[in-house]
Amino acid sequence: MLSILIPIYNYNINRLVEDLNNQCIALNINYEIFLMDDNSQPMFQDINKEVAKLPRVHYEILSENVGRAIIRNRLATAADYNTLIFLDCDVSIIDPNFVKNYLDASFESDVVVGGLTYSDEPPPSQLFFRWYYGQKREVITATKRNKKPFGAFSTVSFCIQKTVFEAVKFDTDIYQYGHEDTLFGLELGRKGYSILHIDNMIQHDGLDTFDDFIDKTHRSLETLLQLHQQEKGIETRLLKTFNRLNKPGMKKGLLRIFAPRKKQLLRKLRGGNPDLRLFDFYKLGQLVSIDVNGHVI
């Protein structure tokens, strides 16, 4: 009936799998939990081997890192059942009916997206910006997400029929971090499948440090520009602003404003009261830099 699929990279997933396993047992359903490790550090491989002892849990370690798109495609291929729940590894279950909520909603739509939330307690300072950004930009009600269902698609937590997944799959040309979910949601819409967003929240716990999050942002911008240049049909608010800089000299003019202020912007964002509008400008500056110079300045 149900395959729960979790790609793993450098994270302890024992508590997550135990909670999911307990919910499935309580529902008295046929299920499996398939874990696929994307060549994590040995320490995490050893920690996570313990959970493989649970009944109906499969644990596979890849010999090389294949990336976010390929590993999800492999998980779907390996799944025994037609209803799939995908979860990121760095989350926790906060709803005792999490699995049931997805199964109930799966009869209403080809794809169901549950949404995410963050702890109410601020984390240590080095993790604060990632937590703050998530609170302000990623915690979105189902009502709001359903207004633009395909654009709001996220890989963090979703339920999909295997036949639908196999008809779309993640684009394996995207190896670097970022926007595989954006393109997947777009392809679902193009192929005529339905997406329903519900308030079946999981909590995102795997917070990046400020420096790691900025690095991931840079890599995501490189992927975004690549998809844009390949005319994949990606539309984001950032790209819309970027495309308005279409007159001669506008991009280089923006860089003359941005480049000498970059360090100052990062200092302000690193502080205890960051302005996310400054982060939007920072991303625009970096996107233009990649386009004009071929790299992040």
What does this protein look like?
The protein has helices spanning 14-27, 42-49, 68-78, 98-105, 125-138, 142-145, 162-168, 180-190, 210-229, 237-243, 250-258, 262-270, 276-293; strands spanning 2-8, 31-37, 57-61, 83-87, 91-93, 111-113, 116-117, 157-161, 195-197, 202-204. The protein has 297 residues and is an alpha/beta fold. The protein has two domains: 2-204, Spore Coat Polysaccharide Biosynthesis Protein SpsA, Chain A, CATH 3.90.550; 210-293, no CATH class. Strand 1 (2-8), helix 1 (14-27) and strand 2 form a beta-alpha-beta unit. The longest helix is centred in the last third of the chain and has 20 residues, at 210-229. The mean pLDDT is 93.
Silhouette: globular
User: What oligomeric state is this?
Assistant: single chain
Number of domains: 2
Low-confidence stretches: none
CATH superfamily of the largest domain: Spore Coat Polysaccharide Biosynthesis Protein SpsA, Chain A
- Continuous helix count: 13
Report the average pLDDT across residues: 93
CATH class of the largest domain: Alpha Beta
- Secondary structure class reads alpha/beta
By DSSP, the count of extended strands is: 10
Tell me the series of helices and strands, N- to C-terminal. Answer: EHEHEHEEHEEHHEHHEEHHHHH
Q: What's the CATH topology name of the largest domain?
A: Spore Coat Polysaccharide Biosynthesis Protein SpsA, Chain A
Q: What's the CATH architecture name of the largest domain?
A: Alpha-Beta Complex
Radius of gyration: 20 Å
Helix content: 40-55%
Strand content bin:
5-15%
What is the CA-CA span between the terminal residues? 50 Å
